[in-house]
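Researcher: Let's continue the batch. This sequence belongs to 4-deoxy-L-threo-5-hexosulose-uronate ketol-isomerase, and it's 280 residues. Same format as the previous ones, please.
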Amino acid sequence: MNTHIETRYAVSPNEAKAWNTAQAREALHIPQLFAADKIYMVYSHFDRFITGGIMPVKQALKLETVDQLKADYFLERRELGLINVGGTGKVSVDGEVFTVNYKEALYIGRGKKEVIFTSEDANKPAKFYMNSTNAHTTYPTKHITKNEAEIVTLGSQETSNHRTINKLIVATVLPTCQLQMGMTELHPGNIWNTMPAHTHDRRMEVYFYFEVPQGQAVSHFWGQPQETRHIWMQNEQAVISPPWSIHSGAGTSNYTFIWGMAGENLDYGDMDAAPITELR
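Model: Same format as before. Here are the structure tokens for 4-deoxy-L-threo-5-hexosulose-uronate ketol-isomerase:
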């Protein structure tokens, strides 16, 4: 079996206040998602959210069920979102083949039994970053290019947060049960994402940072607005954000990150703002 999965448990803000750096990283930080011909997953007890990385190089990789799901096949009761952060890849979904290029997305609805991943060129392998959530009904599988995304540009050069948000898997682009995914690209010379920060107690979130230049890093901020903490992130690493926590970051260079959400609703604008001057 080429699949490795670990479980991370939910935590309250009172418990998290007592963590040291190592404990925070152990609970929230995902240091590795990609390895040749492997599927890595982390199963979070926050909204039963699964984060993973799939990197086919010399062989095809099949999405297999795992013990945490107690299901006959992975998507028996789940939906799946993918964004390719590597070379061109192909995804076969019950025999229907989709070609997914760099920074393109694929949504796969509940009930699909056989999902197989391959790379077009082993020297430039695909890297499928995945998010999966529980699903109560079935929606059609859909390939989403950046041209089909809902695109919003926010921030400014003066405040160091000029960025483009590509909403790829959201209700305005296609129907899903609860999964939302998108990609935010920081423009050159800008470092701040998701500022002003916010929480949304009805949804959890996972951030995946990539296109972080060699020798650079991103400081990801988390915690309650009046008691924030940070986790240093390297390229192609992810971090879990509890519903009660802010999720924001600043890098030593510009970078790109993928956000994925699940929870109570599909309202992208459901945010409880934390004014910059009130952060502690």
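Researcher: Any comment?
Model: Residues 19 and 111 are 40 Å apart (CA to CA).
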